[in-house]
Design goal:
With 373 residues, this protein is α+β, with helices and mostly antiparallel strands. Helix content is 29%, strand content 36%. The protein has three helices and 21 strands. A six-stranded antiparallel barrel has the order 2-11-14-13-12-15. A five-stranded antiparallel sheet has the order 16-19-18-17-20, with no helix packed on it.
């Protein structure tokens, strides 16, 4: 009788949990990255000098063209004043040359008229030929004076233009004593303080364009298939682990990292305020990329699959009231460890997702409860 009881207990139908079809399942890819800025500039002066003014510090937001810092410009201002005086002198010389040119022209016209009259009178015998020749010579000399005066005026005009160009150069150099923001920016770092000497080209500030902040994430190339620009991404900062930000893929590098075998993906927040969210460069971030959505399917938790090799594995089925083993093909692997069942199941069968230790092929069983997504 005891033996019969043991036999009945070993052969009686047992309840097992089965997997019910799940719908609208997101296939997500996980990656680790850091907060970076696409537009980052280390700005400094084009010339060297002593810093006498600083108008910004790290964390400040500055408008395009805003003054950031200034060098001692006393010597350069003196050069500008000297060049302004030289330009005024050149302009005065030009005016004098132009007046002399006008005077020479008038003298030439007067002597030309005298020469013409004396030539006519000489023809009638009213004046001597010598007087006519003298008048003609005076006319020629006056014409030469006109050409000399015109040349002097041209030289004076060139000197005036040279002085104006030199003044412009000095003003450009003077403007280079001021450092201004090349775009609307946020100051990440200030590298110089008042009184320090900044060399030409040396960084004084590090600026970023706030709207260009993104997360550079690294995705295992084995999981990177199907990634596309515009896909939705959920970002979690290390400093705010209980909060996620919705973002989107804006760039995918066209070359993988050969050493780590990872693909670089850049994601940018879709609704973040650049003054507050995702603003600390270099902070670690976790990303989950929604690669696609599976409308409907059956998913098996990995712990209920044996011999899984990345594509195939063996599962338990409940088929016509009996347990059976079946090797099936899987597709996507979800972040929670579930595997998408690709192989069609036999008609009337169900996938068993139960951790019972008394499962064996051919044993009678019945579905106790369906396990959803």
């Amino acid at each position: 009788m005891a033996a019969g009881g043991l036999f009945w207990r070993a052969t009686r139908p047992i309840p097992v949990r089965t997997a019910a079809p799940a719908s609208n399942i997101e296939v997500r890819v996980f990656g680790i990255g850091t907060v970076e800025a696409q537009v980052l500039s280390k700005v400094g002066f084009q010339i060297g000098g002593k810093v006498v003014a600083l108008a910004a510090d790290q964390g400040d937001r500055v408008a395009a063209g805003a003054l950031l810092a200034k060098l001692d410009d006393a010597a350069q201002r003196a050069k500008v004043m000297k060049t302004q005086a030289a330009e005024r002198q050149a302009a005065a010389n030009l005016a004098r040359s132009q007046a002399q040119q006008a005077r020479a022209q008038i003298s030439y016209q007067q002597k030309k008229l005298v020469s013409e009259r004396r030539q006519a009178l000489a023809g009638r015998g009213s004046v001597s030929q010598e007087q006519a020749d003298d008048a003609q010579t005076s006319e020629g000399l006056a014409g030469s004076d006109v050409r000399v005066a015109a040349a002097d005026a041209g030289v004076a005009a060139a000197l005036r233009d040279d002085a104006a160009a030199q003044l412009q150069i000095e003003n450009v150099v003077l403007a280079q004593h001021e450092l201004r923001s090349p775009f609307e920016a946020r100051v990440i770092a200030r590298h110089k303080e008042l009184g320090s000497v900044a060399n030409a080209g040396e960084a004084v500030f590090t600026l970023i364009e706030p709207q260009s902040i993104w997360v550079r994430a690294y995705i295992d190339e084995a999981l990177a298939g199907g990634l596309e620009i515009g896909q939705t991404v959920f970002v979690r900062l290390r400093s705010e682990p209980d909060r996620t930000f919705e973002a989107g893929i804006v760039r995918i590098d066209q070359e993988n990292d050969r050493l780590t075998e990872e693909r670089r993906v850049y994601v940018r927040c879709r609704g973040c305020d650049p003054r507050h969210q995702i603003r600390i460069l270099g902070e670690q971030a976790e990303v989950e990329i929604v690669k696609r959505v599976i409308p409907s399917g059956i998913f098996a938790p990995l712990k209920f699959v044996t011999g899984y090799d990345g594509r195939f594995g063996t599962v338990w089925l409940l088929e016509n009231g009996r347990l059976a083993r079946l090797r099936v093909e899987f597709g996507e692997r979800l972040l929670d460890g579930r595997l998408q069942l690709v192989s069609p199941l036999p008609q009337g069968s169900a996938l068993v997702v139960d951790s019972r230790t008394d499962l064996r092929e051919g044993r009678a069983a019945y579905a106790m409860q369906a396990s959803g997504s």
